[in-house]
């Protein structure tokens, strides 16, 4: 009897509070990454981005034609400056001017270039170049200021697993690893705070799920499955999905450096729909669709993470098209052969997901009516019982 009563009260409260308006101050943007390939011309890509309802595109290795394709598009553009150019930009302001005059000046502001990532996961893929990273970022920022283009943010991308200590559960214990912390990340966070720019970090629940066998698949796929380590006792919050746990680990690692309130943009996230490695059974189209649908619903809800109510500033889904090499032969082991693309080469969507989030929104009228009816039913049941 008391259990019955508790359940009723619980349902009553959860329904009642779900009827209150969501604290949706700024809903994160959703974009996708694109690496120029031969199967799709840049103008087709710009069309696909807007028809998918994406707000932004991240060009992983831009060529001017790809930037040009986004002239007059509503989608904002995040450019990536290749790792190989980082030393010359660090040494020489005119190299920064010359890069900007090819990739930015001819297009901005007709193409909504929002930010430039200096390098792509440089700390893990080219660690020898890390001493050049901050000087290159500063030179690019100064050059943009000289050109009067202060609206464009300058930052760089990191990978979650290679920059955070392995003890990121619970999130409150997360820290950036040395020596990258002292040499690069601390001064970078200072720079980002001074220039109102965002930290860009790749967040792949898929990879953490594969490393930590105790994580149930539903927790990684936004199904709110129970998980023994989902409570963070230090902060007193409970996690409902792995994505939020990883984002809050980044938020805590930033806070541990004494830099609060640096916006976080997820530079890459996704779930592979296929893998060349037969042991990767979780790389399948069903899970990929569940992950992406859960991600879009979560971001569009504007609810944020337990520790940061505004959540991430935005997220880029990796990636629009499968890598061309995936079908090729040379140099790629089966293990790396994963298909992350959300579009087929013929530009049709692999998954049934509305990235604009305009349908299935919890604020819908029908949903409201259903909830109200349930409230009445629960109320009547409760009064009958007592
Ligand atoms: C951009 O958005 C405006 C207003 O929502 C719309 O009228 C216009 O067609 C869009 N342009 C493109 C290229 O999608
Ligand atoms: C600086 O960069 C410019 C343009 O990229 C190049 O012409 C020049 O030789 C460079 N100067 C030095 C000192 O590296
Ligand atoms: C940062 O943003 C705040 C609020 O948007 C603004 O007042 C401030 O001038 C900006 N600072 C810089 C350096 O752009
Ligand atoms: C990679 O995977 C794709 C499909 O997932 C397959 O068509 C291709 O043959 C695979 N390539 C290699 C080298 O395993
Ligand atoms: C596009 O390609 C996919 C996979 O090859 C196929 O299933 C689909 O029917 C194609 N759609 C069109 C419109 O050609």
TrEMBL record:
It is an enzyme of class 3 (hydrolase). One of its GO terms (biological process) is carbohydrate metabolic process. Keywords: Glycosidase, Hydrolase, Signal. It holds the Pfam family Glyco_hydro_17. Its EC number is 3.2.1.39. It catalyses: Hydrolysis of (1->3)-beta-D-glucosidic linkages in (1->3)-beta-D-glucans. One of its GO terms (molecular function) is glucan endo-1,3-beta-D-glucosidase activity. Residues 1-26 form the signal peptide. Coiled coil: none annotated. It comes from the Eukaryota. Belongs to the glycosyl hydrolase 17 family. This is glucan endo-1,3-beta-D-glucosidase. It comes from Ficus carica.
């Amino acid at each position: 009897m008391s259990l019955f009563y508790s359940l009723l009260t619980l349902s009553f409260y959860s329904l009642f509070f779900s009827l209150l308006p969501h604290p949706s101050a700024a809903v994160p943007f959703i974009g996708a990454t694109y690496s120029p390939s031969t199967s799709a011309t840049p103008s087709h890509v710009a069309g696909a981005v807007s028809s998918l309802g994406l707000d932004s595109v991240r060009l992983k290795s831009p060529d001017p034609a790809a930037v040009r394709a986004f002239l007059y598009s509503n989608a904002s553009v995040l450019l990536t400056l290749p790792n190989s150019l980082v030393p010359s930009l660090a040494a020489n302001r005119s190299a920064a001017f010359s890069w900007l005059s090819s990739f930015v000046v001819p297009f901005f502001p007709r193409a909504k270039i929002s930010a430039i990532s200096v390098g792509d996961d440089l700390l893990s893929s080219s660690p020898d170049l890390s001493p050049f990273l901050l000087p290159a970022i500063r030179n690019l920022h100064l050059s943009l200021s000289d050109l009067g283009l202060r609206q464009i943010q300058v930052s760089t991308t990191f990978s979650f697993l290679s920059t955070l200590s392995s003890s990121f559960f619970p999130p409150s214990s997360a820290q950036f690893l040395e020596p990258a912390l002292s040499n690069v990340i601390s001064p970078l966070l200072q720079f980002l705070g001074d220039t109102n720019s965002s930290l860009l970090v790749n967040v792949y629940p898929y990879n953490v799920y594969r490393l930590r066998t105790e994580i149930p698949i539903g927790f990684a796929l936004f199904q709110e499955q129970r998980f023994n380590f989902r409570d963070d006792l230090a902060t007193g919050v409970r996690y409902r999905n792995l994505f939020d746990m990883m984002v809050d680990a980044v938020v805590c690692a930033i806070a541990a450096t004494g830099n609060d309130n640096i916006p976080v943009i997820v530079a890459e996230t996704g779930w592979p729909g296929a893998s060349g490695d037969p042991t990767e059974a979780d790389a399948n189209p069903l899970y990929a669709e569940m992950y992406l649908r859960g991600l879009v619903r979560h971001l569009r809800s504007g609810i944020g993470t337990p520790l940061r109510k505004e959540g991430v500033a935005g997220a880029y889904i990796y990636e629009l098209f499968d890598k061309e090499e995936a079908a090729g032969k040379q140099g790629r082991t089966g293990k790396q052969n994963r298909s992350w693309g959300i579009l087929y080469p013929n530009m049709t969507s692999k998954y049934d997901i509305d990235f604009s989030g305009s349908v299935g929104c919890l604020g819908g009228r029908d949903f409201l009516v259903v909830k109200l009816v349930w409230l009445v039913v629960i109320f009547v049941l409760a009064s009958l019982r007592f």
